[in-house]
């Protein structure tokens, strides 16, 4: 994996770059649509590649491990083959879902035991077997196994947690470095900075993580309920420590405003379920603000879903039609809204990149954030 | 509306034809995907037109009347505009859903009072207002308001019912003929033959319906639970009476075998929820038989969904992947299976048409029906 910086903003820490993987290049900053269980919900792979123009998608190790399972994924030749997606894929470590989805879980030094949210069966995730699992899934970028602390989190717990996360990282690296990719293309391992909302812990964790000198670095444990200002403060602290010449991935973030503010702080990669999940519930993100398409005011609005967009479904369908579909629980409503939001998120990061290259990012960003959070 | 016969089979009553509407031509025999509430569930209009190559779709008056409602449909400029579909549309009269979906309904000479299955509100459908409603929806072909008798149905009830259906038809025609289309293109009204599974009632009804000399004729009240042989017997009786030079539409039918057998009896048009509804549950129709994709046997089958198909989703995705999606309740599973089934149904009627024109329909049909109902 190669990371090349293309441009640096002078009024902020924003940077434009390019990541090269075994499945092609990624123009950063980038947003990665979440493809939970081998599918970005309600979207065909053809639409993802040709219409939304996603450059990389994310798969969830927890979901993929439980269903379809490693046996099938390995027989398929990895997730790319299984789902027919030939661009880059990143997988998380499964930790986040273990902490948030499975009811019974027990964190020990060895790893985490948990029960499947599907059938209650018992499983153990360790730093070692999570590396093996991600080798089998075959993502281009894989994540270290960490503990993602909840918000709020007591200082003492957060401190002990990062220490374990760093010990786990050592085990991840040892396993990763002593094994080979299974499908002929390289994989990169990203470690994850934790430390809740405590500046000194975030610094300590960032230093520890940077020390491992992996091909990229991630920040986890944010966007879990803390105020946005705390998130930005932590991103800033961490980005000052993480190496400049490697991509930085802020996990699970966020709203369009969050994304722009974090780009300004030096983040290159994002993922979030918000455009897909909120889309299915009728929330549309646009460059002028947020639309709740269920509202009465869109009932007789026969204008295109997004007149600023070039996406087929934004042009072909009206707001009134989409409102009817979402209101009636029709699948096509979820399909249209998801496409819209993903296309908007991909537009947003592409535009940010162009503004960085043009040297106009900072003012553009400040103007955009005023509009993006408005309710239309 | 014009109907032109292109070819007649010599060994059966099958015919190939062409219907010309204000939204283009339809090559018959044809299958019409069901677009219940202004959407063929899980399918984009772009896919319907370009991939599945649907030539005409069906809308349900009952659903559209309740949601989005006539006010919105009229302001949109009719259903074509509302959903952005510029090929022909046929609407049913709403009667079938009133009988099957609404819990409280009362059939009187004036019409039918019923309660909405959505909010329990009370409504009245009469032959006159159903014509007005379909004028507002703006379908190219609209259906007369009839009583669709259940199966089994006592002879006395069925006899009285067709008499009322015929009186209602007179009222439909009077209202239809004294009103104008709203959106600048013509509409055609098809009456419906009823009579349950009683040969003499079907004959009587077909004669009464033919007497009205409308632009096409339909057969209703079949595929409601009766044995296939009874269905075919009724179709045969009715097709012997309905005029040769007008299209014949068999409502709500059916399986691939039902469709081929009824084409052989002289039917030109079909609609059915089976390809879409059963698709969402993982049942795939293929030229070699029926696949239940949920079955264990497809778990490790990484071959394309349908190797005989040219449809993007049949080629791009494997059986194992589709099984995983349906199993996991992922929307993309419903999307893929629906596309497959609609594409197969459209292939089946297109192939039937070509076989009729080539003079090889009868043997081809007999070979196909042996394979189509097999369980794979």
TrEMBL record, chains A, B:
<feature type="active site" description="Nucleophile">
    <location>
        <position position="271"/>
    </location>
</feature>
<dbReference type="Pfam" id="PF01702">
    <property type="entry name" value="TGT"/>
</dbReference>
<dbReference type="GO" id="GO:0008479">
    <property type="term" value="F:tRNA-guanosine(34) queuine transglycosylase activity"/>
</dbReference>
<protein>
    <recommendedName>
        <fullName>Queuine tRNA-ribosyltransferase</fullName>
        <ecNumber>2.4.2.29</ecNumber>
    </recommendedName>
</protein>
<dbReference type="InterPro" id="IPR036511">
    <property type="entry name" value="TGT-like_sf"/>
</dbReference>
<feature type="binding site">
    <location>
        <begin position="92"/>
        <end position="96"/>
    </location>
    <ligand>
        <name>substrate</name>
    </ligand>
</feature>
<dbReference type="GO" id="GO:0005829">
    <property type="term" value="C:cytosol"/>
</dbReference>
<dbReference type="InterPro" id="IPR050076">
    <property type="entry name" value="ArchSynthase1/Queuine_TRR"/>
</dbReference>
<feature type="binding site">
    <location>
        <position position="146"/>
    </location>
    <ligand>
        <name>substrate</name>
    </ligand>
</feature>
<keyword id="KW-0819">tRNA processing</keyword>
<comment type="function">
    <text>Catalyzes the base-exchange of a guanine (G) residue with the queuine precursor 7-aminomethyl-7-deazaguanine (PreQ1) at position 34 (anticodon wobble position) in tRNAs with GU(N) anticodons (tRNA-Asp, -Asn, -His and -Tyr). Catalysis occurs through a double-displacement mechanism. The nucleophile active site attacks the C1' of nucleotide 34 to detach the guanine base from the RNA, forming a covalent enzyme-RNA intermediate. The proton acceptor active site deprotonates the incoming PreQ1, allowing a nucleophilic attack on the C1' of the ribose to form the product.</text>
</comment>
<dbReference type="InterPro" id="IPR002616">
    <property type="entry name" value="tRNA_ribo_trans-like"/>
</dbReference>
<feature type="region of interest" description="RNA binding">
    <location>
        <begin position="252"/>
        <end position="258"/>
    </location>
</feature>
<feature type="domain" description="tRNA-guanine(15) transglycosylase-like">
    <location>
        <begin position="13"/>
        <end position="372"/>
    </location>
</feature>
<keyword id="KW-0808">Transferase</keyword>
<comment type="subunit">
    <text>Homodimer. Within each dimer, one monomer is responsible for RNA recognition and catalysis, while the other monomer binds to the replacement base PreQ1.</text>
</comment>
<dbReference type="GO" id="GO:0008616">
    <property type="term" value="P:tRNA queuosine(34) biosynthetic process"/>
</dbReference>
<keyword id="KW-0328">Glycosyltransferase</keyword>
<comment type="similarity">
    <text>Belongs to the queuine tRNA-ribosyltransferase family.</text>
</comment>
<comment type="pathway">
    <text>tRNA modification; tRNA-queuosine biosynthesis.</text>
</comment>
<feature type="active site" description="Proton acceptor">
    <location>
        <position position="92"/>
    </location>
</feature>
<feature type="region of interest" description="RNA binding; important for wobble base 34 recognition">
    <location>
        <begin position="276"/>
        <end position="280"/>
    </location>
</feature>
<feature type="binding site">
    <location>
        <position position="194"/>
    </location>
    <ligand>
        <name>substrate</name>
    </ligand>
</feature>
<dbReference type="InterPro" id="IPR004803">
    <property type="entry name" value="TGT"/>
</dbReference>
<keyword id="KW-0671">Queuosine biosynthesis</keyword>
<feature type="binding site">
    <location>
        <position position="221"/>
    </location>
    <ligand>
        <name>substrate</name>
    </ligand>
</feature>
